[in-house]
Amino acid sequence: MYFESTFALFLEEIVNDRSTFEESVMEMTRRQILLLVSLAALAVQVGTKNGVAAQGSVSQAIRDACQNTLRPDVCIFILSSDPRSRDRKYPGQLAYLATLLSNEKGKESLNHISDLQKQTTDPYLKKVLNYCHDRYELGPVGHTSTALEHLNDGDHNLAAQSLSDCVAKVDECDHIFRIPPYPPSVLAETDEVMNKYCYVALELVNSLGN
């Protein structure tokens, strides 16, 4: 109910004039476009077997931990892509690393949204980006930081709840672009990749038990 009421108020404040939207998108710099392309490439890569191409370089600890997730290939890709995973030999260490990577990816994504906010001159799109900026600040950055604190305290349940809240905030951003007459999402790839990171961290933390 809270989200629905907040969302309804947000809808009332949205500017209905979309006449400058396409012009605003065209004003994105080459740097922003390249960043979107790179995010799209990552989203595709983690969704295929490319993520586990170098099986020989993946530790048994990562393979075992990722078997507890719905998408072991995505989990293996995310963990094995970071050199810090080489020193993580226990499930708790890998769960912590996945949460840390989610936090780092959240900060990177938040910076990307901030760049888009600066680039657009369309008040309609800017309003939507402002909303998503708040969601990412609360979720992928804020809630993952809280999850790390809970993991340090040994409270797996609260850590899992924080990561679940992270997923919810990303979904709220994604949802805002899915309701007419909103424009095609300029954050679709960002949301997809961010959700993969948060879900992997959540599943690994859940596998630790109470």
TrEMBL record:
GO molecular function, one term: pectinesterase inhibitor activity
Every Pectinesterase inhibitor domain range: 57-204
Pfam families (alphabetical): PMEI
Membrane-spanning parts: none
Entry keyword set: Disulfide bond, Signal
InterPro entries to which the protein is assigned, alphabetical: Invertase/methylesterase_inhib (IPR035513), PCW_Enzyme_Inhibitor (IPR052421), Pectinesterase_inhib_dom (IPR006501), PMEI_plant (IPR034086)
Domain of life: Eukaryota
Protein family per UniProt: Belongs to the PMEI family.
Protein name listed in UniProt: Pectinesterase inhibitor domain-containing protein
